Give the backbone structure.
Amino acid sequence: MYNILTLNKIAAVGLDRLGSNYNCAETQDAPDAVIVRSASMHDTEMPASLLAIARAGAGVNNIPVDKCAEQGIVVFNTPGANANAVKELVLAGLLLSSRKVVPAIEWAKTLKGKGDEVDKLVEKGKSQFAGPEIKGKKLGVIGLGAIGIMVANTAKSLGMEVYGYDPFMSLDAAWSLSRSINHAKSTKEIFDECDYITIHVPLNAETKNMVNSETIAQMKDGVRILNFSRAALVDSSAIKDALAAGKVSAYVVDFPTDDVLDVEGIIAIPHLGASTPESEDNCAVMAADEVKLFLETGSIKNSVNLPDVDAGSIYVDRICVIHRNIPNVLNQLSSAVSAAGINIDNMLSKSKKDYAYTVMDCAGDIGDSVVDVIGAVEGVLRVRVIRK
């Protein structure tokens, strides 16, 4: 029986996939895994039993990823599960930024009680909310992951000229991107060329405040900027200054902070990107599948702190080792197993930056003494044996 701690309400369609061998609850004394949506885990004391955390969503800012790696805890996310939901809201953001729909709706509310005058007042006042069509305009998409590609392809189908930039685009992503998308060689090319810019990159030290006073100065006058990724990707002070100066026509953000609320030209959406029942179901299903696969077979798929490893089906006992990516660990692991008279039928090992994951399928009795010897190897962070 595996114990799964749920820190948020996780869609039943996901938890149901785990089956009767899983005990899912909002409180667990010794959880084997955690499935979480938005709850912050930065102040959480990780129990010794915890093997995995699955984030039902793409971003993992609410999880101490490096701390988990040091404790041998695999952190998963669910890339692409909410991509369509976010894509649809980004497209809405494009239209809202152009057509001044939000202020127009607010203005229309002020006409309440005017009776028969409303029709005339509408016709007289509507010109103040005029805005351009998106067809024929240039859209720059920074970040061509699951969401960015869907935005780029759909915007192209709506008649926009699309420029995409992502120096780390995967081969799978490249296959999904329409060949009619212009491949920008730098963000500067997008800043120079595009009437609209939408950002779809993770938040890290390199991307924080990537839209700032200097980069805004490179953009076309009247540019419209959309941020459906993370608030800190954009310097809000620089955006407000650029709006006041007329350099930026509109800023749409799905991660509002206090300093951007009730500012003319800023459309602050309360983090609705993935707020669809379909998205929540998709994320829950993917998170549950990742946890089940890892707990039952040791295979890792969609981890943010460890390499993906497809270990295949269990046919003999399996030793799974999370360790630092340093020299001589593999030799010591295989020596420890061999010294116990156990034959290694198959061995897989992959690394991801500072960490590595090794799986050994072994024919023989893997006792506690073997586990202790492996655990004592320098750099080893976690040892787990999955019995056939």
Q: What stands out?
A: The domain at 86-268 is CATH 3.40.50.720 (Rossmann fold). The mean pLDDT is 96. Residues 86 and 230 are 13 Å apart (CA to CA).
